[in-house]
Design brief:
Length: 251
């Protein structure tokens, strides 16, 4: 409590009372769904990058290579592909998915994001039970892939890995992004993601070698007709609201 004298009290109560009325407003979440461009690309691309060593590479030579080729027009991509040759490792593939997410807007706040990949099939003749890790990517161009993009994929997991056992063929597999994955989304430009084999490629643990076999999780790309099987990024975001105040003065 406070104290006052009679003269001050008279001044304080003479003018009136100031009342602040705060208005509340509902905040609505908005969901945006984004796809890579099919060929010919205008702002974003998807596809796979690979290194093929001819069947005689040591594991670290294959994994740390700069890449030998790329494909951004194929209707499929192998995001966790490992192949053995007759005497050593032959080929590794990584997938890249770019999305133009500039429509979100800088001021908006992202609360959730899901990367949905349509798995066409999975194979494991290598018997290594491959999984799929979502990471960043940094291709040289937003609208084309080249061999040198093979070593542009990141090393931080952006989500819980899609395991071979849980991957469902002929269906979308939804991968909820973690905080690192959400922070990788650009609200004003292009969001760049990729996938690579998790427990072997990303973790750099050489799988048990068997000759002339392969393992993969094969994904549908944007060059598939329509968008019913395209890679898609679904982002939930809100517009921050500044509280409003009406001030009423009465005698």
């Amino acid at each position: 409590y406070g104290t006052t004298d009679i003269n001050t009290y008279a001044l304080e109560t003479r003018g009136g009372v100031l009342v602040g009325l705060f208005k509340t407003e509902k905040v609505y979440a908005t969901t945006g769904t984004f796809y890579p461009d099919a060929d010919p690309e205008t702002s974003s691309v998807d596809g796979f990058v690979m290194h093929e060593g001819g069947g005689n590479d040591a594991w670290n030579t294959l994994r740390n290579a700069v890449g030998s080729s790329a494909d951004d027009t194929n209707i499929t991509a192998e995001g966790a592909f490992i192949q053995s040759g007759t005497s050593a490792w032959r080929q590794m593939r990584r997938a890249i998915f770019l999305f133009d997410t500039s429509a979100i807007g800088e001021a908006n706040i992202i609360s959730n994001a899901v990367l949905s990949l349509y798995v066409l099939q999975k194979d494991d003749s290598l018997a290594i039970t491959p999984d799929l890790a979502v990471v960043s990517s940094a291709p040289a161009s937003n609208t084309a892939l080249v061999a040198g993009d093979f070593d542009s994929l990141g090393t931080t997991d952006f989500a819980t890995r899609l395991t071979y056992a849980s991957a469902t063929a002929s269906a979308y597999n939804d991968i909820t992004l973690n905080a690192s994955g959400i922070s990788n989304i650009s609200k004003t430009s292009i969001s760049k993601f990729g996938t690579r084999n998790g427990q072997y490629d990303l973790d750099n643990v050489a799988p048990t070698y068997t000759a002339s076999n392969f393992s993969q999780i094969r994904i549908s790309n944007s060059d598939t007709t329509g968008t019913s099987q395209d890679p898609k990024l679904t982002v939930t975001y809100t517009v921050p609201i500044t509280p409003k105040q009406d001030v009423i003065w009465f005698e």
